[in-house]
Amino acid sequence: MAQSFADYPNVLNPECPWTPLREATGLPNVKWCEETLCSWIAEPANTWSNVAFLVAAAALWWLTRKEASRTLRFWGPATFWVGITSLVYHASVTFLTQVFDFFGMYFFFGLVLLLNLVRLGTLPKEALFKVLYPLILALTGVTVLVAKAGLPVQGIVGLLLLSTLATEVLASRRATGAVAHRFLFGALFFIFVAGLFSASDASGAWCVPGHHVFQGHAIWHVLNAVGIVFAHFHYRQFQASFV
Is the pTM of this model over 0.85? Predict the structure, then answer.
């Protein structure tokens, strides 16, 4: 059973620092298990676990800083946006920053989906970044509309993941040479396990609200950060196809 905001009195406690923004822009469409504190860091575990993304971003930046490929160099900044937007969202727990969180996730999902379209020959490699930024903004706008319609915005991420997997299968089948999938399988493993932890958190199957170190959704952040690094190594083998 999903957590209810009614179970967390600090969410709309007028003495808490984020309450004015919550009242002005609304509440997110989901409440993760962790207790909301009356603090600038409302969800400590869910907030600080995003440091895993920032560590992954730094590692990817270091790995790719001398690469000629702009696409390879972009993995670090994309991962940074995933982490920093999620960190701000969980620190504040507002609808506005939840949209900001999705904006960050679309940097990663937009990148991998468009890379697959480049591999398929559907998108010219020179057009990747010309399409990426409008795509991120468009998906963010769709997120707002879906949320305002009362529909689960998390489904958008699910559709993007399925689209990425479908285009990956097509691109691999059409490849002229052998495609190694060991890093992709590693990425999917971490993403799948992360999803189980996050689902158990949102459903209340594993929920200890007052524990501010181990939370299912916090573990989701850490495992997905590892998954992004694995995904990067999968796409490195196609760098000759990218700008």
Answer: yes
